[in-house]
Amino acid sequence: MQHNIFTTMRTLKMMEGCKGTQVYAINPSGTTTTTTNGFGGGGGEKFLQNLLSNSVRSRSNRNFQAIQSKDEVNSAVLAEALASYGLPKTDQIEPHIEFCLKPMNFVETLADVYCRMEGCAQFGKSKMFLEQCALFRGLPDPKLFRKCLMSARLHGVDVHTKVVLSSWLRFERREDELIGVSAMDCCGRSMECPGSALVARYNPESATDPCMCHRDRGEDTGIYMDEECSTSSSRGGDEEEDFDMSFCIGDDEIRCRRFNIASLSRPFEVMLYGSFMDSRREKINFSKNEISAKGMKAAEMFSRTKSLVSFDPEIVLELLSLANKFCCDEMKSVCDAYFASLVFDMDSAMLLLDYGLEENAYLLVAACLQVFLRELPNSMHNPNVARLFCSSEGKDRLAYVGHASFLLYYFLSQAAMEDDLKSNTTVMLLERMGECASESWQKQLVFHQLGCVMLERKEYKDAQKWFEAALEAGHVYSLVGIARSKYKRGHMYKAYKLMNSLISDYTPSGWMYQERSMYCQGKEKTMDLSTATELDPTLSYPYKYRAVSKAEENRLGPAISEINKILGFKISPDCLELRAWFLIALEEYEGALRDVRALLTLDPRYMMFHGKLQGEHLVELLSHNVQPCSQADCWMQLYDQWSSVDDIGSLAVVHHMLANDPGKSLLRFRQSLLLLRLNSHKAAMRSLREARNQAASEHERLVYEGWILYDTGYCEEAIAKAEESVSIQRSFEAFFLKAYVLSETSPDSESSLYVIQLLEEALRCPSDGLRKGQALSNLASVYVDVDKLDNAIDCYTNALNIKHTRAHQGLARVYHLKDQRKLAYDEMTKLIEKAKYNASAYEKRSEYCDREMAKSDLSMATKLDPLRTYPYRHKAAVLMDDHKEAEAIAELTKAISFKPDLPLLHLRAAFHDSMGDLTSAIRDCEAALCLDSNHADTLDLYQKVQQRAKEQLQT
């Protein structure tokens, strides 16, 4: 039978793209030919597509009567798929080069930025926060980047800076994906309001205030004008007796008051009151100044009223031209503001942009620019917009008006890289960004990113050139790019020597050994990868390489165990793909389908097999090899996965449920919660936006908008959305949202009592057990905060009764507070037994046992999840208690090298202080304060250490 199956598979392979009536000969030899170089060529994709088509849609064809068994067909399809693509090979995977700034000593760089920030003038703080943004872009917590971006906007001085940063903040929330939301809609916050961005004032105190602008653009023609521009003269009406001169244009005579016209500008004043003949004439011929009689009448009226309210745009355009020609600054400013107020969408922006550029109208161009930026990435698909931003000529035109900056092109290039990393648009925007770079960090960033993009485009010579430019600017990490470029050009030994010298010249880091492993073989490669994991256990490439190596040796079980190590604490599509691949080879299709579904939740456009096959196609293939599930079955599975704390399994179930019911906003919301728990912030926000778009009711939509606001740092606005939702209809999610945000932002006892009321209201509303379990757990946590421990026990017990397994951890905490350590330990043991991913459970249990058992639990927690920082801090504290100061510092330093965490930096600063190393203590305090300048404990320590350092200098 096996012979017949594979003969049929060969027949299917030969039938690429053929019509049903065409006939092909079958190879009588029974031999199969498969590609042996991993994935093979482009034919693999067509092959699998045909396999999919024939296995799913053409099984009734009379040519395939011999293989009517469903299991036989689909098993054969998957087996032949692996034969066609081949298992992954070690020479096909590479470590990623990071696109962000990566200083050799991150802590020293943070400390330096903080010191320069503190000594910076107020007007220069926005640029300093932008530098901080560039540093934080590479950190896993996106909130740090957004916080710096908000701080940069807060301290924005000029209109250009405000426009770009306001648009960037909006882009980070991806409001362009929200149905019914216009790019120029005011969201109610001054920091992101399109009108507020066009006011050139330094006002950090009011930048976070609610926006006062009118949403009705018909009433909005004056919001962009400064107060001095919108005031009008006390004079009114046409008082003929005041007119003492005329401007003649053709046959028209425009009566004016000499003093008023002269006050428009210095050139008019010289013309009318200077030593020229015109100054003594009552009538002046003005026909050759390219202004109409109507335009000149408007100028005369403006000279008296300082207002443009009654004029048509064509007349105002004439006034703008006249103002440029005769240097009438006030009139130009008012005309500029008038046109800026007319820009509200892409059409108006495209229509008015050329006028703004030609007339050097700063505010008008800013308004047009704002529309383009707030419409990203779609606006870049407009060829005129792309030409403006991408070409050198366009950049020069923007520069002439004061709107070309490093900040602008930094934003544009980041948006372009997310949209299409390898596109010509991305390259050109980065080139313009490089032309605007002036400071060292700016040059390092743009040259390094150009190198990365060229490397992705396989233009290795250009990549090397840009990496070398970044190195020359001071970005030592770009040596990795130089080495990779040389390697791609066939110079492996040169690449090895580069990385070897880097390891010799600097403090070794995990990424250095990881990169050097690329350029050696055998035991040396294995040792480098082991050292890389030892120095930085969060690097994924060593795990992937070891897993694939085992798979090449046909040891698929150990290969899966190896990739499981990193999937236990760091979820990524490439690692999930590898595990799915291994599971398919073992014919464990249910597990493979789980991983592919989870992968597609993280990245819906992911292409499997190194870009050869759409993930959804593989889901369809795998689905025919597992037991079908109804929506009710899926809900039962979701409860099981949730109770076993299997977030990947839960993601897969929700993905399946959404395939059955794609418009279910509640499922999208659940998906976002799971993704946040897995630290997949970008994917979580995408799911939350989809939930908002699919909401069936207004009150539900408001809740999702509230969560979007909370996750992007707007807590008060999130509470307002929750209250608005409750005013329409009382619901579990609205009360829960308000309670959650308040508990996070207002930790005082009075707020805690209010949070308790809100959560009790939530629990009275209809919801499912999964959400009610979470609410009960949250309610219990607040009861603990207000010292109502018996109430907390009741809530945690009720949560456990509906399978909210995480409640064991809260219950253990209560028992510990009641001095029942044995019960607390037992609760955490139950959680460890039930939970699939339980690093946090081991970490928490360590608090409820003796020193040796705690040491064992913390070692296990670190092994399962090296990103958890408490075990490092605890171990370092124990070493300090044992007077092993150097070892304690080394323990913290090791963790800080791959996770510059504020608590780790604070603790190391305290250790340095206790050892009398005040210089190191000050550096660590400054680095910690760069991450959070308001951290009270670190500020207190910093001030004390500084005072001691001053006293030492004085003695």
UniProtKB/TrEMBL annotation:
GO annotation terms (biological process): negative regulation of ethylene-activated signaling pathway
Name the record gives this protein: Ethylene-overproduction protein 1
Pathway assignment: Protein modification; protein ubiquitination
SMART domains for this protein: TPR
Residue stretches of each TPR repeat: 773-806
Organism: Anisodus tanguticus
Acyltransferase keyword on record: no
Claim: Transmembrane helix is one of the keywords in the record: no
Alphabetical UniProt keywords: TPR repeat
Domain of life: Eukaryota
